Amino acid sequence: MKVLKFGGTSVGSPASIRIVKEIIESQTEPCVVVVSAFSGITDLIIAMATKAMERDPSFKELLIEFRSRHFDVINEIIEEEDREFTLKEVDSL
Prior knowledge:
Elements: E1 2-6, H1 14-25, E2 31-35, H2 41-53, H3 59-77, H4 80-92
Parallel strand pairs: 1-2
């Protein structure tokens, strides 16, 4: 079985995500796809968790940035008919 792994830079922008999508769709045999967090998101999560653990209320600003980055990508790459559902699902997570 083929394993395709895409790092953070590979999914760092909507344009990059579209390329990843094309690569996955071009596969003719079964494969497993492993995708990293968007570029910079892991560091953002660590910073957010550290601030929350320290009871620093500025973690909320990082949470807004985290949410915004994901919503921006959704708004750019998800077709309109699926966008509202996707935004609600991601927001609930």
